Amino acid sequence: MYSTTIFLGIIGPWQIAIIVVLVVLMFGGRKIPELMKGLGTGIKEFKDATKNDDDDNGSLDKK
């Protein structure tokens, strides 16, 4: 628990700004919307898979 607190304390607004600038420089402004779309699709698929997994486990418990 202590290590998590230290890690979260290290990342501040300046560090986040630097990370954003580095991402823009690495991928360019045109690639970022494509990356975000892919990330959103991946998150949606993950949520759907976990929802289906929960539904499947629930039906097995009822038998």
What does this structure look like?
It is a single chain. With 63 residues, this protein is mainly alpha-helical. The protein has one domain (2-62). Helices cover 89% and strands 0% of the residues. It is built from three helices and no strands. The chain has helices spanning 2-10, 13-27, 31-62. The chain is flat.
Distance between the termini: 39 Å
**What number is the mean pLDDT?**
78
Main β-sheet description: none
Number of helices: 3
Shape: flat
The number of distinct structural domains comes to 1
Summarize the helix and strand pattern as letters: HHH
Q: Regions with pLDDT < 50 over 5+ consecutive residues?
A: none
Please count the beta strands (DSSP E, at least 2 residues each).
0
> Strand share of the residues?
under 5%
**Helix content estimate:** over 70%
What is this structure's SSE topology?
Layout lengths: L1 H9 L2 H15 L3 H32 L1
What keyword list fits this structure?
flat; 89% helix; mainly alpha; 63 residues
